[in-house]
Amino acid sequence: MHIDKRSPLGVSVSVILALSLGQVAKADDGFNTSISGYGTIGGTYTGNSAYTYIQNPSEFKATNSQFDLGVDSRIGAQAIFTYGADLSVIVQEEARRRGSENFSLGTEWAYLQYKPTDDLKLRLGRVALATFLMSDFREVGYAQTWFIAPNEVYGAEPFETLDGGQALWHVALGPVGLDLQGAYGSTSQTVQAAGVSYDVSAKSAYNVSAAVSYQDFLVRIAETLVSYPQTLPLGPTTIVNYMNHDKFLSAGFQYDNGTAIVLAEWAKRSENAAPLVNLPLSAQTGWYVAGGWRFGKLTPLVSYAVGKPSESLTHPEVATYRTPSISLRYDVVTNVALKAQLSRAQAANSAYWTDGNLNSSDRVTVFSLGADFVF
Amino acid sequence: MNTIPKITVVLAANLMLIAVAQADVVVIGNLAAATMSKDEVSQFFLGKNQTMKPVDRASSDPIKAQFYQKLSGQDLSQVKATWSRLVFTGKASAPKELPDAAAVKKAVAADPKAIGYIDKSEVDATVKVLLTLN
Questions:
Q1: What is the reported pTM?
Q2: What is the complex's ipTM, to 2 decimals?
Q3: Which of A11, A196, A364, B22 is 20 to 30 A from B126, alpha carbon to alpha carbon?
Q4: Contact A142/B73, CB-based, under 8 Å?
Q5: How many A-B residue pairs are in contact by the CB < 8 A criterion?
Q6: Is B80 on the interface with A (CB under 8 A)?
């Protein structure tokens, strides 16, 4: 949604600040409004100008050896309108880079929620597509230890939201918490391939997940399936139309005792084969492990990510890419964290570059610096 | 008149500061509420269990940092990050922040599901101590 193409940043910030200035309004008839927000001011550059860096398929404008604030910076505001104890409407608007435009305003969440019991939430509207462990809050940098989640996993899913229905069931059994979540609806995304952008619209998509938490441990498994009509030009006169079933399986682990942090996640993307060529459009496996330690306000975190594209139309190569990263979080005040991150990605790893170099064995440094905040 | 040595005054002030720093924080609930373990209280104040309604204090109030440190070993930035995950995914609403112990006692006395925390010295007959953190 673009309100003013001449100054998207100004308009977006104005809208979000206007929402935020209200902070909290209350009424005696059971109707309450609360406003909160989050944001990131930061950027990324690469150590080699030949490689232009992207984080995910929804961003077309890449960054190279010049520090680019657009790739990471974003600001979001959330309004919660509650009526009584059971009914609420939640809207979350966010300005960030979408396509090739910086600070483009879009709706991340917008739904009506009904709570028949303390444990059950039923939602109707737009929700985040919770493909991975942190997909729900992927935009809220302050809620994460690192500055950027590993592209090998988090950059793989092109779809970000789902328009439809969602049910969340939470049960606390003493120290054990169980969270079951399911969503069904439609989704769409504008993606870019070979310099051409096109809209992908899926009328059928679902996401189911189960998470178990015990004291400082959390384990989550999820399955996401997005089905959309795909047109493939295989030659000057040959065009194949078929239904692409784009599936993600993921398993995530988290341990956080307040001092030590361990994160690990595995995700596998699979699609049905396209007719005639008998190959899927995309297929890959990605995983990472990360470990950090809080020294007061300082939290260093080391991570190691692996991406393995399987043979597909978008990845003719079968390879294994490995990316070590280190990040540092410094909690300046209660709601602001400064962060720096350095990754050494392989030049051939397309999870990081608009145009990777399959013939190169080089490693390229990706350096990011910024501040995450909530208000 | 002024016969108290300066060193005594300084020592007394320091002792008072230590006393404040080590003061017991108590978790309070409605008179009808049952006592709770530290793990249970932690679950309510960190959003893992939403069957009770925690009421919080302002971040500028020193008792807030003391409470979360004693309860979970976490500083306020960690607590804020935890709640950010819940708030911006619609999974929970952050606890309401009340200005002082009197407001917490009033909220807890009026709602059987509400729990809060105050300094032990501020407990009165309108509320029940569910847990002492020392």
A1: 0.88
A2: 0.88
A3: B22
A4: no
A5: 79
A6: yes
